[in-house]
Amino acid sequence: MNRVGNLLLVLLLFGVGFGATFWLQTRGSGSSAAALFIPKVECDVTDEKCRARYRAQAELLFSAGDDEAGSRTLERLAAVGDKIAPFQLGWHYEEIYRAAVGRKLAAGTAIEEERRYGVRDLPRGEAFDALVARQNRADAGDRPTRARALAFLWYAKAAQGGSAAAMNNLANMYRFGLMGTPDLVSARKWFLEAYDAGSPVAAYNLENMRIKGY
After folding, report:
1. Burial (CB count <10 Å: 0-12, 13-18, 19+), residue 98
2. pLDDT tens across 174-185, in order?
3. How many helices (H) and strands (E) does the chain have?
4. 176 contacts 182 by C-beta, under 8 angstroms
5. Low-confidence ranges of the chain (pLDDT < 70)
6. What is the DSSP letter of 182?
7. CA pair distance 86, 64, nearest whole angstrom
8. Are 149 and 116 in contact (CB under 8 A)?
């Protein structure tokens, strides 16, 4: 075999070996192939600049299809008191639900945690973590149903922390029936809460409801 042939054989063997290793890594971790190329972040989560890097990493992981790693990253930030991570989680799970159901957003069935606690009385700390863990279990129901419940849980946590954006999105969940059926009274209440907390989007939504006679 000549020198060129030897080189091609080495390259072929390297390619096969690399491909096999790559496949085993993605299969074993449950990650998408793209997620393996996302840079690791290692810094002190008590620093806001560090948390911003982790939040950006989570968005990249979601974009790459690695929902589990992205959620883990944001949950870690939420556990140390980050104010933005709970909203990001709520947004992520709401988008999963919306993508699954399309234009017909009304679910027809209540969210157990919303029916039982509402937003203000939703448990905190370890009790909240237990509610999230319950929805994350594979046997907790189909993915859109779990995503809808998780969107509520994380938006509620963010709203408890004063997030005007989360209050506005909770209002929209009530308005369009993601809590079960459309509830315009609760929607208006949370749009007002969001407006008082400084959300300009809530002001637009309130005016939109007024124009439509609600």
Report:
1. middle
2. 999 999 999 999
3. 10, 0
4. yes
5. 1-37, 138, 140
6. -
7. 20
8. no
